[in-house]
Structures are given as structure tokens and as C-alpha cells.
Write a structure and sequence with these properties.
Helices cover about 45% and strands about 15% of the residues. It is built from 20 helices and 13 strands. The chain has helices at about 5-15, 15-25, 35-50, 65-80, 120-135, 160-165, 170-180, 180-190, 210-215, 225, 230-240, 255-265, 275-280, 340-350, 365-375, 380-390, 395-400, 415-420, 435-445, 450-485; strands at about 55-60, 80-90, 95-105, 105-115, 140-150, 165-170, 270, 290-295, 310-320, 330-335, 360, 390-395, 405. The strands form 3 sheets. A 6-stranded mixed beta sheet has the order 1-2-3-4-5-6. Strands 10-9-8-11-12 form a 5-stranded mixed beta sheet, with helices on both faces. It has a two-stranded antiparallel ribbon with strand order 7-13. The N and C termini lie far apart (about 60 Å). The model has no long low-confidence stretch (mean pLDDT about 95). The protein binds iron/sulfur cluster (SF4). The site of iron/sulfur cluster has 11 residues, from α2 and α9.
Length: about 500
């Protein structure tokens, strides 16, 4: 039996997850698009970070060949000071690779490369397991560091690798965490060999676990974990072993929203506050401009005046309506060249958005922040871009504030839940059906990973998807008017 670093981290959270991973391989799900994208980001950052250590030597071994990797590491460590992907393995089955193994006198430094922009707590657990393995494999460890992305770096011209990263010495925190590693490892090694799966209790964070489909198979689609705060849901489940919303006593709902959500669900009903909706509708000024952006994020900034993970807008859809129920005009922008889309997008936006009338968005922080960033980037357009922000009205508000709520929303005010609760419009079957897909496909285009035909198909899918997002807001506006007037 082996125990890797990711096994160790998984078991620190839940030993049953480790047992299932080792003993029920049929339950291990395939990676979803988001996880694959984060692996890709991680690989890009790894490759770049290695350039910061020009004398480093790669321990070239297959990922499955742990023993071969450990033997090669021993040999290369004789004559080199910096190794990439150094591998160590212990007789008890524990093994790991470290991104960078750096000689420090008669000892070694462990350096983990992370594509994140801050040091997360679980990196300390990562490194404490790595320190335990390397030290017991004969590599005394002097220092532990995390190399992570500096998201204050603004690219100008050639990429400056020395500005791309920050480094933090976490040796003391790792030393503290290391005290318990041996004890945990012993428990994990024996637990994964148990014949029967360990008994554990479900909790709110289980919904993020790859085995949620198995452990949570009896949990209703809408449960206490959606209705209550994580702490309250865990307490309720521990006391009652029920996950049903209808079993939650009213006095456990600590907010008006929870009371409304619970009541609507129990009665399979809607909650309507017509006056509250009217108040919001009264803030609108025609013509209405329904606006939605699509953006792309890259860990390594691709364009001048952008930072790691900057949200670069490359597309917008704009539906314009002169009066209530009036004819719709549709404008759109999609940058179809492999270059910085922001100037052309900003000019187009200013041209089509006019000077007067509300700009309707869903979740205003996103669009308004993009406009502010564009205003800083293009001072000659700043007045116009900031004037657009002055006109923004957020359609999320009446749904989030429960002026209108349907039990079908399952405690969410996201447009992906609100829309099907009140309208027939669906994203099912669309070639691009969510913002994550739009981003990853456009990124592949920017990186030159698509054929011309693939790009053409993707552009068509993007135009349909983003156009549908603003059309969805138009439909929801009709819904809000109807409910404000007492019609459904
Ligand atoms: S779903 Fe929860 S109980 Fe099941 S393995 Fe994951 S964390 Fe453990």
C-alpha cells in the first residue's frame, strides 16, 4: 500500500475518502473541466518557475515509477544542487515528489510551487508530509518555502520572471505541523487496509468531495446543507440524522431568507413581495441596456498592462429596449483575433451603450469592476466607461432579497437557478453552456491550440451563449413586471 501527498491531504479531511479512493476505484470520478483547467494552470506556472532556477536538473521519471524516480533522485543529488521533481519513498509506503529540492550546505531546502496568489493553510500540510518523507529517506531538511504567483505584477513588454513570483519561508509552520505527521500516517496506512469502509458523519463540506455522489446518494437534491449555514446544518444533522428541509424547525432558521426558503419549499410555493419588486422596478430608466461580459483569465499575463489572473473581457452582448415590452435591438462584440481585446471592446461598448438609460446587469460587481479596470487602462475613454457604471442597475437584487423567490431556486439567486424557475429558456444542449467553458475555449484559441474551423465553431457558440445571457435578463424583467402587478 502506498500513501502519496494527495492521499495524505485527502485523509486529513476525511479518512473515508482515502479508503474509498484505495478500495472503491469504481467510485473515483473523472476530473471535471474546472479541475483540468487548474491542472493546466499549475503546469504553466511550474514550467515558468523552473526558469527562475536555471541550474536545476529534472528528475525525469514516469509519474507511476516512484521507485525509479527515487533511485534517480539519489544519483542526481550526488552531483547537483537543485533538482526538479525530486522523489523520495519510504519502506512504509509513503512517497512524494517535491517541485524543487535545493541544497543548503549539508542539508536541503524543500520548495513547493503553487499557481495560487497566496499561501493556503493546506500547503503547510503538503510540506509537512514532504518533509517527513524526505527526512526519513535521508535528506535532512533545513528550510521549507512556498513559491506562489505575485498578482501585483503588471506585465510591460517581455515577461519578467523575477516579478512573477513571491516566496515565503514557512519552515516554522511546517516544523509545528510535522510533529503529528507520523501519528497521522500510521492511522491512515492502517485505515486504508481495513476490510470495511470507515464510518463517518456527513457534513456541509461533503458537497465538495469527489465521493459526494456516493456518500450523499440519499440526501435530497435540496437539503439542509443548502438551506442553513454550514455550522447550523452540521449541528442539525448530527442531532437528527436528517437532511430534509421539511424537518428543520423554524427556530433554527436564523434569517428571514432561510424562513422564506424553508416555507416555500415545504409548501412548494413562491414568495412574492409586489411592493418590493415595484420599488426596484421604479429605479429603472428607459431605454434599458442589458449587458453581459465574457472574460478570460490566464495565470501568466498574455498582454501588456495585465496581471496574473486579470479578468480580460473579450466579448459582450447588449440587448437594448426603448420602452417596456418594446422591440429588442441586439449589439454584440467578440474579439476574433489573437491579440488584446480590451481597446476594441471598450470602444464598442461606449459606442453602443449610449448616454442615457439604465444598464441592467446580473451581479453588478463583475461588470462594474471590468469597466473600472478599462477606465484605468484607457484614460481617454474613462469618463464614458465610468458614466456607464453610474447607470448600472443590478437585476440580482430583487431575487437575492427575496422580493421574488421560487422553491425551485433551492436557496440560490444565481441566474442559472432563477431563470428555469420562472422561464422556459434553457442552456441545455448548447455547445457552450456556461462561463467556465467560454473561458477555457477562448483561452485555447488565444494560445493557438485550435484549428481555424474549431475557432469558427467556437465563435458561433460564444455568440449564442452570451446573447442568451442578456436575453435571459430581458425575460426575467418581464417576470418581475408581471409579479409586481399580481400576474404570474
Ligand atoms: S462525502 Fe463526506 S463522508 Fe464521504 S468521503 Fe467525502 S468527505 Fe468523507
Amino acid at each position: 500500500m502506498f500513501l502519496s501527498k494527495s492521499d495524505y491531504i485527502m485523509a486529513l479531511d476525511c479518512v473515508k475518502a482515502l479508503w474509498l479512493k484505495k478500495n472503491r476505484k469504481d467510485l473515483v470520478p473523472e476530473y471535471d473541466a474546472r479541475t483540468l483547467q487548474s491542472f493546466e494552470d499549475g503546469n504553466e506556472i511550474q514550467d515558468l518557475a523552473r526558469k527562475w532556477y536555471p541550474n536545476g536538473v529534472l528528475v525525469d521519471s514516469e509519474s507511476w515509477d516512484v521507485i525509479g524516480g527515487a533511485v534517480k533522485t539519489k544519483a542526481l543529488a550526488e552531483t547537483n544542487d537543485i533538482l526538479f521533481e525530486a522523489t523520495a519513498k519510504l519502506d512504509n509506503g509513503c512517497f512524494c515528489r517535491i517541485d524543487i529540492l535545493e541544497r543548503n550546505g549539508d542539508a536541503w531546502n524543500l520548495i513547493e510551487i503553487k499557481s495560487a496568489t497566496s499561501v493556503k493553510d493546506y500547503y503547510i500540510d503538503d510540506l509537512s508530509f514532504q518533509k517527513y518523507v524526505f527526512e526519513n529517506a535521508g535528506y535532512p531538511v533545513k528550510q521549507c518555502r512556498v513559491l506562489y504567483v505575485n498578482n501585483d505584477y503588471v506585465r510591460h513588454g517581455e515577461l519578467d520572471i523575477s516579478q512573477m513570483f513571491r516566496e515565503e519561508d514557512v519552515s516554522e509552520r511546517v516544523a509545528e505541523a510535522c510533529k503529528d505527521v507520523e501519528m497521522y500516517v500510521k492511522g491512515m496506512l492502517s485505515a486504508q487496509q481495513e476490510k470495511n469502509e470507515p464510518e463517518t458523519t456527513l457534513h456541509a463540506n461533503c458537497q465538495d468531495c469527489p465521493f459526494w455522489g456516493y456518500c450523499g446518494k440519499d440526501v435530497p437534491e435540496y437539503s439542509v446543507f443548502d438551506l442553513l449555514s454550514a455550522q447550523a446544518a452540521d449541528l442539525f444533522y448530527n442531532q437528527t440524522h436528517s437532511t430534509k428541509v421539511e424537518d428543520v424547525p423554524i427556530d433554527l432558521c436564523s434569517t428571514d431568507r432561510q424562513l422564506i426558503d424553508r416555507d416555500c419549499y415545504v409548501n412548494q410555493a413562491e414568495h412574492v413581495e409586489p411592493e418590493h419588486i415595484k420599488e426596484w422596478l421604479d429605479t429603472l430608466e428607459y431605454p434599458l441596456y442589458y449587458l453581459d461580459y465574457e472574460t478570460v483569465q490566464c495565470p501568466i499575463p498574455m498582454f501588456d498592462s495585465s496581471k496574473p489572473y486579470s479578468q480580460i473581457p473579450f466579448q459582450f452582448s447588449l440587448h437594448v429596449q426603448e420602452q417596456r415590452g418594446g422591440e429588442l435591438k441586439h449589439y454584440e462584440f467578440l474579439h476574433q483575433e489573437r491579440s488584446d481585446p480590451r481597446r476594441a471592446l471598450a470602444e464598442c461598448l461606449v459606442k453602443y451603450c449610449g448616454k442615457q438609460g439604465s444598464v441592467v446587469v446580473y451581479n453588478q460587481a463583475f461588470e462594474m469592476t471590468r469597466n473600472k479596470e478599462l477606465a484605468v487602462l484607457f484614460p481617454d475613454l474613462a469618463d464614458d466607461l465610468l458614466a456607464i457604471n453610474e447607470r448600472v442597475v443590478d437585476q440580482l437584487i430583487p431575487f437575492r432579497q427575496r422580493a421574488l423567490y421560487s422553491y425551485k431556486q433551492k436557496s440560490s439567486a444565481s441566474i442559472k437557478y432563477v431563470l428555469p424557475s420562472f422561464c422556459d429558456l434553457s442552456y441545455k444542449g448548447m455547445a457552450i453552456a456556461n462561463g467556465g467553458e467560454a473561458m477555457s475555449q477562448y483561452k485555447a484559441f488565444l494560445e493557438g491550440k485550435q484549428t481555424k474551423t474549431e475557432s469558427q465553431q467556437m465563435f458561433e457558440a460564444l455568440l449564442k451563449y452570451c446573447g442568451q445571457d442578456t436575453y435571459a435578463m430581458v425575460l426575467l424583467m418581464g417576470v418581475l413586471y408581471r409579479y409586481a402587478e399580481g400576474n404570474k
